[in-house]
Amino acid sequence: MRIAVVTDSTASLPPEDVAAAGLVVVPLHVHVGGQDHTEGEGVGGISPGEVAAALRAREEVSTSRPTPATFVEAYEQAAAKGAEAIVSVHLSAQLSGTASSAESAAGDSPVPVHVVDSGTIGMALGFGALGAAEDAAAGRPVEEVVERLRRRVAASSIRLYVDTLEHLRRGGRIGGAQALLGSALAIKPILELRDGVVEPLERVRTRGRALGRLRELAEDALADLPGWADGAGLAVQHVDARERADALAADLQPQVEEEVRIVETSAVIGAHVGPGTVGVVVSPRPQD
After folding, report:
1. Per CATH, the architecture of 3-28+65-154 is what?
2. For residue range 43-57, what is the model confidence (pLDDT) as tens digits?
3. ∠ CA 161-242-251 to the nearest 5 degrees?
4. pLDDT score recorded for residue 186
5. Which of 116, 140, 146, 184 is surrounded by the fewest CB atoms within 10 Å?
6. pTM of the model
7. Looking at domain 157-286, which CATH architecture does it have?
């Protein structure tokens, strides 16, 4: 059975990875100063760097999910290319209605669609989508592809440092980190995605200590992988903070055999966490 894997642009996957894996990526929308943009490259698209610049200029920035009609179009195109089933995996339903749009569209798809709420974002979602595409290409049954995908995203961790909580507050995605608002400016928050929402993890006093703590937390996660894991994917994500990301990735590289991915976080996620954000994703890889 030919299985297509569909994800969304918050997976933050570079175009070359999308093409190599044969993924279908449905873009979310970013609204800047009243103008609507689809996330990504091309006409009408907007990049993470452009969103970071708009936030620094204090322009009004918001985001929205794809419509069900957009998903129906993606599913029809996948079927036209020979897909007999589709696995559609998306960012946490606690943060966006994207998975809901996918569910609504599934009934109008010409082939069966298995919608998966990843419960996560960024490269934690991206690694899951890439793994699902590998499993599909290896000829695994769709039920097994979905089971391995669910297991991987559930075991993945994403921890991040943000320069300010203001963007999360404005976008309504602040979750339990609301409790940190009003803290002394010298306190730097480390956040994590827990049960699909943003929650506070720790508070430290300097940016340098925050980045060092991200490294330690990633090392702890790598040392405590599930018994079913065959290593893990490791990615450092950032929003207009490449130097910080490069330094953190260099510190983490000795911990894994494969190259640590350095990925610019998607424009939609960047709109909510703001410039200067750095995050680390550890994604356990299921054994064959």
Report:
1. 3-Layer(aba) Sandwich (3.40)
2. 578 999 999 999 989
3. 70
4. 56
5. 184
6. 0.92
7. 2-Layer Sandwich (3.30)
